Structure formats: structure tokens, C-alpha cells
């Protein structure tokens, strides 16, 4: 799947050329360049419901170029990303995760181009994180994002920080193809998405966020209006010559968000909550919990953190996502060694259905100065056929990733 905002690359190249004209002898000496290669192997113990394979390989390449002027007022960033998948063509991706110019003034900064913006504080899910589209075929947790074209203006002062965003182009959500895993039983036809907005993907979305720190409390309030980043999947008209397919539909939405973080000794208390309104329905969702960390476990350099979060969604059993009345518990083990070894283990349990739960394992360590080894594992259990987890109950997987940096 090739994404269209790559035209921003032309503007960034022009900006680099302008910088060269202003200071032709030394501008390029301020460019920092980093590159990474990733090899990834997934293994599924069971075949998929429609009979998909059990072994999947993929590879990815990323380049990261960053330039800053001598007075540190101007920055240029460019980060192209390329991914290839052995079996699922819908995971093939050429994207710009970053391609922007930024000017930093006194108490403000302006950014124009493509970037990834993260909002949120909780571990198990990020309700308020709404600027970027999710790269849904990249990871199960939804934390991998696509680059978003934007014009961003930030104000900083004693009253806090105010972020304003104009988002002129919408990125469609990616879905697994016929040979992919972690998908509905019917293939999603991404060739003809439907939009509530007459401007479709060129609808001008708008977002703002105010944040401030009050001693040990960090508080954020946000608002978003525009194309919903989550798609409704509607059955297409039945054709006897073709199997049933699903068509994505993107409604307009308005969302109010609240996120807060309170530090108290070894405790971190977290909250994310949203109110979202669409033509179809209004609902409230929230995730709240804590993380408690034992520093220097048993007199060693090890740290052990305990995590507990409650997930609520007012749509109850009609919610199209897990987390409508669930509890997530987990632990984070940090070795504090030269390899930066970390292990995270967590389980989410549906409180309405004892037979519905999911779990994850994330572990990583550096192998020398230029590579990192990652191990990820997920399992899904559900005996309730209207539960979103029921659709992927055969998609437990183990994933090994090797990242090489140069």
C-alpha cells in the first residue's frame, strides 16, 4: 500500500536547498543522519479462520535526517519509511513519518509538513491520541502511526502550553489483506472508502490541546473535530461472483479529551477520558489506573513496576473495541544493564465475560552498540461471538524482531 502524502518530500528538498543558499559552506555539516534496518518474523500456532499461513516474514528500512540552523531557530526533519511483507500486500508501505520545517521563536514555535504527534499517559490504551492515523497492520496495540500532514502552532508560557493543529489531509486506516492475519472473517475493501464529509480525505480537520504542570500534577485538555480515525466496517452489496467484503466508512466526529498524570513518590496515577460525538452515537470512554515502582529490587540495580488500569466505555457490549468494562494488570521489569533490557507482561480481563481476555509480552535488549533484539507475544481468548476478540481468537502469535542501526 503506497500512501500519497509523499509529495511533501518536494517541499522539504526545496527547504534544504534554501538553507544551502543561505550558508553554502557549512549548512550540510549540521545534518544528523541515522538509518535503521529491521527484520521481523511472526509465528502463529494455528492457521487463521479463513486458512491463512502460520509463518510471516517482513523487513523495514527507515532513514532519519535532521538539520538545525546555527541559531537553533530553524529545523528541518525528514524520515522516510519503507516496509515489505512476505505474504500480505496490504502491509507493504512507503510512508513519510516526518517531513517538516519548524521555526522556534520566543515563547512559540511553528511547524509545517508531516509529523507524528502523541497524546496520552496510560499503558493499556490511548483514548486521547487522535492526531495521527493508526498503522493497524503494523502492531496490535495501535501504537504505530502514519505520518500526518499538518500546520502546527504552539504557544508556551506561565499559563501552560497551547497546541493548535490544522490537518488538511486524512490518512485512511490500513487493514490486513486476504492473506493477512488479525482481521475480520471478511476482507476489507479499501479501494472505495466512504466519507460523511463531502470533502472526503481533504476535509480540513482541526485540533487543539492545552497542558500545564501543577507541581506533581500534569494536566491536558484537548479537542478534535474532523474525520474519525476509526472506520465503521459496512458489508458491501452482495455479488455472487465475488465473496462478501467490508467497506470502511469514516464519519465526522467531535471529541473532548482529558489526560492527567500525578506523581507521588513511587506511585504514578494516570487518567485518560474522552467524550466523542458522531452522527451515529455519542459515548464516553475512560482508562484510569496506577503504576507503582520498586526501585533497587532486593538491593540490586533492578526495578520492578506494577501496573493496574480500568477500562470503561459507555457503549457497553455494543462497543466495537475491547475495553468496555475491563481491567488490565501487568508488570514492568527493568534490568538497568548496559543493554537496556526491559520486560513488560500484561493481561486484560473482561469483567462482563470471564471467558474473554488478552495478554501481551514485550521484551527487548541491545546487542552491542548498533542492534536491538525484541520479543513480542500476544494471546486472545473469547467464547462470546459478539466480542471483538472473538474474531482473532485463533491469532495468538510470537514475534521476533532484530533492529540494526547505522
Automatic annotation (TrEMBL):
The keyword Signal applies. This is Porin. Residues 1-19 form the signal peptide. It comes from the Bacteria. Keywords: Signal.
Amino acid at each position: 500500500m503506497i500512501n500519497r502524502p509523499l509529495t511533501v518530500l518536494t517541499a522539504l528538498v526545496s527547504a534544504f536547498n534554501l538553507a544551502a543558499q543561505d550558508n553554502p559552506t557549512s549548512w550540510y555539516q549540521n545534518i544528523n543522519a541515522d538509518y535503521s534496518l529491521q527484520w521481523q518474523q511472526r509465528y502463529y500456532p494455528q492457521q487463521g479462520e479463513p486458512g491463512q499461513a502460520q509463518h510471516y516474514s517482513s523487513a523495514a528500512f527507515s532513514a532519519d535526517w535532521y538539520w538545525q540552523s546555527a541559531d537553533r531557530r530553524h529545523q528541518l526533519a525528514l524520515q522516510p519509511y519503507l516496509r515489505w511483507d512476505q505474504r500480505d500486500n496490504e502491509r507493504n508501505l512507503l510512508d513519510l513519518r516526518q517531513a517538516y520545517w519548524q521555526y522556534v521563536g520566543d515563547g512559540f514555535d511553528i511547524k509545517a509538513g508531516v509529523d507524528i504527534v502523541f497524546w496520552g499517559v496510560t499503558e493499556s490504551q490511548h483514548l486521547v491520541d487522535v492526531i495521527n492515523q493508526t498503522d493497524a497492520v503494523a502492531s496490535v496495540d495501535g501504537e504505530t502511526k502514519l505520518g500526518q500532514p499538518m500546520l502546527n502552532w504552539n504557544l508556551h508560557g506561565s499559563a501552560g502550553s497551547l497546541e493548535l493543529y490544522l490537518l488538511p489531509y486524512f490518512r485512511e486506516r490500513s487493514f490486513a489483506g486476504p492473506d493477512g492475519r488479525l482481521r475480520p472473517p471478511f476482507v476489507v475493501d479499501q479501494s472505495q472508502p466512504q466519507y460523511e464529509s463531502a470533502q472526503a480525505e481533504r476535509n480540513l480537520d482541526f485540533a487543539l490541546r492545552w497542558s500545564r504542570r501543577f507541581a506533581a500534577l500534569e494536566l491536558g485538555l484537548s479537542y478534535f473535530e474532523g474525520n474519525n480515525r476509526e472506520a465503521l466496517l459496512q458489508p458491501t452489496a452482495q455479488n455472487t461472483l465475488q465473496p462478501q467484503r467490508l467497506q470502511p466508512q469514516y464519519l465526522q466526529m467531535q471529541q473532548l479529551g482529558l489526560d492527567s498524570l500525578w506523581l507521588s513518590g513511587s506511585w504514578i496515577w494516570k487518567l485518560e477520558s474522552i467524550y466523542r460525538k458522531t452522527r451515529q452515537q455519542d459515548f464516553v470512554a475512560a482508562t484510569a489506573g496506577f503504576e507503582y515502582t520498586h526501585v533497587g529490587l532486593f538491593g540490586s540495580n533492578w526495578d520492578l513496576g506494577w501496573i493496574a488500569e480500568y477500562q470503561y466505555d459507555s457503549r457497553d457490549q455494543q462497543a466495537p473495541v475491547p475495553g468496555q468494562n475491563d481491567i488490565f494488570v501487568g508488570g514492568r521489569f527493568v534490568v538497568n544493564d548496559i543493554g537496556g533490557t526491559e520486560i513488560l507482561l500484561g493481561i486484560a480481563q473482561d469483567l462482563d465475560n470471564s471467558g474473554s481476555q488478552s495478554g501481551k509480552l514485550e521484551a527487548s535488549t541491545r546487542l552491542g552498540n548498533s542492534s536491538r533484539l525484541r520479543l513480542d507475544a500476544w494471546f486472545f481468548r473469547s467464547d462470546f461471538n459478539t466480542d471483538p476478540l472473538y474474531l482473532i481468537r485463533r491469532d495468538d502469535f510470537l514475534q521476533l524482531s532484530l533492529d540494526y542501526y547505522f
